[in-house]
Amino acid sequence: MSGKNPVVHFEMPYENHERLVSFYASAFGWQMNKLGEEMGGYVLASTTETDQNGMVQTPGAINGGFYPKQGLPGGVPAVPSLVIAVSDIKEAMANIVRSGGVVHGEPMPIPGVGQFVAFSDTEGNRASILQPLARDC
User: Fold this and answer.
1) 3-class SS at 78?
2) Does the pLDDT of residue 95 top 90, yes or no?
3) How many angstroms separate the CA atoms of 26 and 108, rounded?
């Protein structure tokens, strides 16, 4: 990955899966897909078309997801956040800490997606970084 580290995904907490899916499907026409319990009840939100590799086709558009409010380990705040793509997650973690932020735990693998870890910035905002898997183009 070259250039800047783009925002590639959003995340927000939910309390009620059915209510969540109904609202976003009805209000915005998003396709909502609840992953299994092995993925912690995560719900993918497709806001724009993607290619066969799951990459968005419209420049500047992002997809997102929702997670159960009570499902976050390690005291990570359950608040809306952004996911920032990085080319080297360990280097990005060091940059976050060096810049005054706090990394919440160690990177976790997301099957078929890449390595992911949450952090808090110097203002207490929660965000995450993602080192995507290499894709064949």
Assistant:
1) coil
2) yes
3) 32
Strand partners for 33: 44
Give yes or no for residue 109 having a pLDDT over 80.
yes
Dihedral class, residue 4 (left if φ above 0, else alpha if ψ from -120 to 50, else beta): beta
Who contacts 50 (Cβ-Cβ below 8 Å, separation ≥6)? Answer: 56, 57, 63
- And the tokens for 102? 């706090």
**Residue in the structure block whose two tokens are 């997102």:** 64
User: Which domains are delineated in the chain?
Assistant: 7-132 (3.10.180.10)
Amino acid identity of residue 64, one-letter, is G
pTM over 0.90: no
- By the 8 A CB rule, do 55 and 26 touch? no
DSSP state of 72: -
